[in-house]
Structures are given as C-alpha cells and as structure tokens.
Design brief:
Length: about 325
C-alpha cells in the first residue's frame, strides 16, 4: 500500500509516515483505539469511527454514549440520518473533552448548491449546538456540476470562517474527484493559493468485495484519508470460505477480521451497530494482525456493492 507523505499515523500521538505496504503493515501492528491520522487540513482523525446510519434518534444518544464508554472517539453522522442532535447530546454528556471527540456530518443530496448548503450548515449548528464541526462531507455527487461546485464553495467559506475544521466528499467517482480538483484549482487562481479548500477525507463503501482500486489510488496519491462504510458488508459475507481460516486462527469473528483488514489497508472503518456487545466487539481489533498472505487472499477483485453506489452517477 503506497501512502502519501501527508498521511501520518498517530500512535499515542507520535507521528510516523506511511511510505509503503511493508512499513504500513509494521505500523498497523501497533494500532490502538487511540490512534489517529493527520489529514490534509492539519487536523487529526481517529482511525476507528462509530457509524450511526439508520440509528433512530430516540436511541442514538444512548448508543453513542456506550460507544464512548467502549473507547470510540469518532462519530459519523449526516443530515440525512436525522440524528445529529442526539449524537451531539451524547458528546456533551459523556464527560470527555469536546476536543477529544471527532464529529462528522454531511450535506444531503437534496441540499446541493451554494445557498442550500449554507442553510444545511446553519441547520447542523442549530441541531448540535456546537462551536465547530470536525468534518463536513458532501454526501453524494448529485445535483450536477454547478450544484457540486456551489456546495464545495459554501463548505470552504464555512471552513475559512472557523465553523468547520476539515472538508471531504462521499461516494464520488474518480470523474467527480477530478472535477472537484479542477474547481479547487480554479478557486485558487481567483482567490490565492490555499483558498480553494482541500479534500481531507473521502468516504466510500469499501471492503474485500468492493476494493475500488482506482479511487483508493487517487486518494493515496493526494494524501486523502479513505473512510470505509459498510466495512463488515452488513454481515452478508460472514460465511465466505476465505474468512473461515482466519476466524479459526485468530479466534475472532468475521466482523473483526474484516475490520482488521480495513485498518491494515490504511482505511478508517465506520462500523455501525446499536447492540452493546457488537459495539464492543467491533473495537476489539488491535490484538492481532493479518499476514501479508491473508491480506492478499482478501483481494477478491469483485465489484459487489451492498449499498447504494453514486460513484457511477453521470449527473
């Protein structure tokens, strides 16, 4: 795995550049639940996140609090999930410093465009009561080129105003990423170097049956952190024969094997569950390491999404 010099692994807050698969694999062995990466924005992101997709608002606060109790410090929400407020309540009540918790939300597809995104950002702050948001993503590349560019401009302005610390995208195809990169250059040509924003994070469905090598390569060349949603494939692949020898060898569940694969790929996995025992299980992935051969065996070459796939949109 070739990683950009901008991608830094924080183990107990001591950085070390990931330069190759060999050095990365060595570093991965020392990962722990407090490990972080440094993003292109200069801020840090915990390497394990807790996803709250489809988590009902009336249970979100309680399960996020349990995730914090388990050791998670990273919550991945979205406007479309309708649970920003309960997640924020958990952050305020957990007794952990706000600076130690990483909170993500996303511009919903229906809010694409400059003015709509400004309203979305305003609503996020109303829902959460936060002084800042750690990461704001564009949830999907819908809305056409004008809408995507307008959304990015609104996010950049919010970042420059100190409201948002880091920016990114979700579900973008390489053609969308190239389009955004060109727009950032266009903004810089008008407003000056560094004034077009920077892509710090990209979030996609990523797992052994959807490796997205083109997107991964694009991001790694630019130091963009890759977040993996559906990292355990919604449980649909737990019985795959390729997983069983590792389950037996390491005495781990299929979910834990898949999360470890994601971590060793250099991704930031975002497992989700409302079950306490599974929230805890998904965090117990730091006491073993998959071998190079095992990692290779999980390179299936399949393109099998278990969720939506806006990367293919030509909108």
């Amino acid at each position: 795995m070739q990683a950009s010099s901008r991608l830094r692994l924080f183990q107990n807050h001591i950085p070390g550049t990931l330069k190759s698969f060999t050095t990365a694999a060595t570093a991965m062995a020392s990962l722990n639940i407090n490990s972080k990466y440094r993003m292109n924005s200069g801020h840090e992101i915990p390497v394990l996140g807790y996803g709250v997709y489809q988590t009902p608002a009336d249970v979100a606060e309680e399960v996020v609090l349990h995730a914090f109790k388990t050791g998670y410090r990273h919550v991945d929400s979205a406007r479309a999930y309708r649970n920003e407020g309960p997640c924020a309540d958990a952050i305020k009540k957990c007794g952990i410093s706000r600076s130690e918790i990483f909170f993500t939300t996303k511009v919903p597809p229906r809010s694409m465009g400059y003015e709509q995104t400004k309203a979305s950002i305003k609503s996020s702050f109303k829902q959460t009561g936060f002084d800042y948001i750690d990461l704001y993503l564009i949830h999907a590349p819908y809305g056409g080129k004008e809408g995507r560019n307008g959304t990015w401009r609104a996010l950049v302005e919010a970042q420059q105003a100190g409201q948002i610390r880091s920016l990114g995208v979700s579900n973008y195809g390489v053609h969308h990423l190239n389009e955004l990169e060109a727009y950032i250059e266009e903004l810089e040509s008008v407003h000056g170097k560094g004034k077009g924003g920077e892509i710090s994070v990209g979030q996609w469905e990523l797992h052994p049956w959807l490796g997205r090598p083109d997107i991964v390569e694009w991001c790694q060349k630019r130091g963009v952190i890759l977040e993996a949603y559906c990292p355990i494939v919604r449980g649909a692949r737990f019985n795959e024969p390729v997983l069983q020898p590792m389950v037996t060898k390491y005495k781990k569940t299929p979910a834990q094997i898949l999360l470890r694969w994601s971590l060793q790929k250099g991704f930031v996995p975002l497992p989700k569950s409302v079950t306490h025992s599974r929230i805890e299980e998904n965090a117990k992935v730091y006491d073993f390491e998959l071998t190079a051969d095992e990692m290779t065996s999980l390179e299936t070459g399949e393109y099998s999404p278990c969720s939506w796939d806006p990367t293919t949109s030509k909108d």
